[in-house]
Amino acid sequence: MATTARGHIEKLPSGSFRVHVYAGTDPVTGTPRRLKQTCPDEAAAAAALGRLLSQADDDRFPDREATLGQALGKYLEVADLEVSTREAHEGYVCRTIGPVLGEVSIRKLGARPNTASPPATPRGKAARQARAHYTARRERQARAQAEPTAERQAEASDGIEIEP
Fold first, then answer.
1. What is the C-alpha separation between 3 and 5, in angstroms, rounded?
2. Domain contains 40
3. Are residues 36 and 18 in the same domain?
4. How far apart are CA 18 and CA 140, in angstroms?
5. pLDDT score recorded for residue 12
6. Residue 121 exposure: Cα atoms within 13 Å on the Cβ side
7. What is the pLDDT of residue 25?
8. Interval 9-15 mean pLDDT
């Protein structure tokens, strides 16, 4: 099995092969970056080792564990935006995108062709969080409409009639 200074191939109990490549340290977190891939046979693993070493050399590899929420957070950190634009983007991320898609892995997001079928709905924890968020929002809105405001109470007590 192939072994280099920065990567190696190991055989798994299932008969598959796993490729490991060290790709340096993350400049933000300081943690080591490792690229991994599982292959069905040794020839595919050797090809994957070469490809992963090339990606590590070119510094063009994705974080396979990153979520959309993390990517949007990083975008908001580094984007050069005016104050009002930044506030608007933060609002979109916090209120709209984050509750529904924030925990979804970027790997699970894909570019879909523009078809008539609707996009996949979130499942599991993300769906429960989104439902709870919007249910609470609807309840707050209903309470706000049901409670008479101070102006409405004053008008009702003064006997002023408002014509439609």
1. 7
2. yes
3. yes
4. 52
5. 93
6. 7
7. 79
8. 93
On whether residue 151 sits in a domain, the answer given is no
Task: Verify that 100 and 140 share a domain, yes or no.
Answer: yes
Higher-confidence residue of 132 and 119: namely: 132
Three-class secondary structure of residue 158 per DSSP: helix
| Cβ neighbours of residue 16 closer than 8 Å, sequence gap 6 or more | 38, 39, 40
User: Does 92 share its domain with 33?
Assistant: no
Span 73-83, average pLDDT:
87
92 falls within a domain: yes
Tell me what pLDDT residue 43 has: 92
Q: Is the C-alpha dihedral spanning 71, 77, 81, 87 positive or negative?
A: positive
Q: Which domain holds residue 32?
A: 7-58
Distance, in Å, from the CA atom of 148 to the CA atom of 67, rounded to the nearest integer, reads 43
The phi, psi pair for 81, rounded to 5°, reads -125, 150
Q: How many domains does the chain have?
A: 2
CA–CA dist 42, 8 (Å, integer) = 12
Q: What is the mean pLDDT of residues 41-61?
A: 84
